[in-house]
Amino acid sequence: MRNILRQHTHAKHRDLDGLMSRLNISSRDGYGIFLRLHARVVPAAEAALEGQLGFDEIPDAQARLRSPDLGHDLAALGLNPPPAETLSFVNDRAVMAGIAYVLEGSRLGAKLLLKDVLKADSELPVSFLQHGAGIRFWGSFTDWLDGQDWSEVDVRRACSAADAVFDAYLSASRNETERLPLEH
Questions:
Q1: Which CATH class is domain 2-6+26-177?
Q2: How far apart are CA 179 and CA 115, in angstroms?
Q3: pTM summary value
Q4: Alpha carbons 15 and 109: distance in angstroms, whole number
Q5: Closest Cα partner for 151 from 93, 101, 102, 100?
Q6: Using CA atoms in the order 77, 12, 108, 173, what is the torsion angle rounded to 10 degrees?
Q7: Is residue 179 classed as helix, strand or coil in its secondary structure?
Q8: Which residues, at least 6 apart from 152, have a Cβ–Cβ distance to it below 8 Å?
Q9: Under 8 Å CB-to-CB from 16, ≥6 apart: which residues?
Q10: In a structure prediction context, what are the per-residue pLDDT tens digits for the chain, which is 184 residues long?
């Protein structure tokens, strides 16, 4: 399932990385846009995830939720949460796996960005970026994902759910990156 999800979402992941790379997260304004972008998607995706069949099967399921840390960082910068992207899913274990795949990948990416943000401004709030530091969230998630039996229908549902979350990120990225200065 993991390899299929990676291959299936590759183009959307590349497109999102391209939009995100235009954002200067080393500046306070750029970092604020970055957090607002995530605030358009993460709380809605996590709310959907929590309500899905099988969510509690993932190791440390509740500990994976990053919305409170995201809210904390926005507040520390004096920013209000933006309107959330609309996400709606059927209640299905494979759908849950697709949503979780994208969110866990986002956390993995955040680890890479943390160093750049702290190097640029050690005073910026980074609870969201450092959520799960020292915990093997990606590995335990992929171990769980790879250890499940998935039918062809399950794979299609997981891919569809992952697409929906990536689409929400792409929409949020377009909305937020139009707001403030970008790198040239």
A1: mainly alpha
A2: 24
A3: 0.92
A4: 15
A5: 93
A6: 0
A7: coil
A8: none
A9: 166, 169, 170, 173
A10: 999 999 999 999 999 988 888 888 888 888 999 999 999 999 999 999 998 999 999 999 999 999 999 999 999 999 999 999 989 999 999 999 999 999 999 999 898 899 889 988 889 999 999 999 999 999 999 999 999 999 999 999 999 999 999 999 999 988 886 664 444 3
Burial environment of residue 76 by CB neighbours within 10 A (0 to 12, 13 to 18, 19 or more): middle
Which structure tokens are listed for 23? 């954002």
Tokens 């959330």 belong to which residue?
84
Place of tokens 């759908």: 95
Domain ranges within the chain, ordered by starting residue: 2-6+26-177
Write the single-letter amino acid at 76.
A
Q: Tokens for 158, please give them.
A: 């997981």
Tracing tokens 């709380």 back to the chain, one arrives at: 43
